[in-house]
Amino acid sequence: MARLPIDDALYVKPPASPLVEATLGLVQELVRDRLRESGRDWNDFTMAGADDLLTTADFAAVEARLLASGHRFDWSASISVAERPEAYKSAGDDAATDAGFVHPDAPTGDADDRGRALRGVGDNVVQHAQDMRGTARYIRSNERVLSYLTDGVPPGTIAVIDDSGGTLTAPIIEQFAGVICAGGTVRSHLGILTREYNIPCLMNAKISGIREGDTVVIEASAPAKTTEDYQEGVERVGRVWLLAGESA
Question: Which residues are registered as beta bridge partners of 116?
Fold first, then answer.
């Protein structure tokens, strides 16, 4: 029987991040060493002995080696930035504290008679009785989260976040007045957390021209986007406004 042609490219995994590759290499090295020292065959080692032969101290040592070699445990949004660079593009060099996101599809406009200039839209997680006003602060690093854990989140913070996972901001999320997230859907982890804490939140946000320290308003009173909306391609968004004369 003739062999069917196989496209090898279909079986090639994309490269993982340097941190993941380094972690995998060190764990594989640890397992090989413990297997050799045990004198057991692979089945016995994995089914009966691995829990005793691989300890918490072993994995703490792996972590120490990773940190000593210069690796950092970056938060998950680094993956989002790599996969969707257009959503996280910055207008300046200091994206974490200065110009913020410049999404190419973000709707913008001049200030209306209430002094509100449109700066973007997003999927509203929960419909609230009132819109939410606050100060935009970009949460894009472990250092900022640690600072807020130590000193507290400034009152009235509208957290602007890259990633929908919620892992980075989970320890401080209940202190946010509102959240604008550039990724995910209303069913993402971050959306679920803000729903549970009753925090106004726009997911999958497309914003532009909001700088660190700007006074912004989230249209939390907009109808919430539903699962059916996503399935049927219904466009249903809440707006983000910059208050004219109150920018950073």
Answer: 243
Distance CA 96, CA 201 (A): 20
Residues 56 and 88 in one domain: no
- pLDDT tens for each residue of 55-66: 888 888 988 888
β-pairing, 215-218 vs 201-207, is unpaired
Amino acid, single-letter form, for residue 222: A
Residues across the chain:
248
pLDDT digits (tens, 9 = 90+) for 111-152: 999 999 999 999 999 999 999 999 999 998 888 888 999 999
Question: Pick the residue with more confidence: 103 or 49?
Answer: 103
What does the angle CA 207 – CA 88 – CA 78 come to, to the nearest 5 degrees?
A: 140
- Per-state percent for the chain, helix, strand, coil, to nearest 5: 35, 20, 45
Is residue 23 within 8 A of residue 62, CB to CB? The reply is yes
Is the pTM higher than 0.85? The answer reads: no
Looking at the fold, whether 28 and 109 belong to one and the same domain comes out as no
At position 22, the amino acid (one-letter code) is A
Same domain? For 123 and 167 the reply is yes
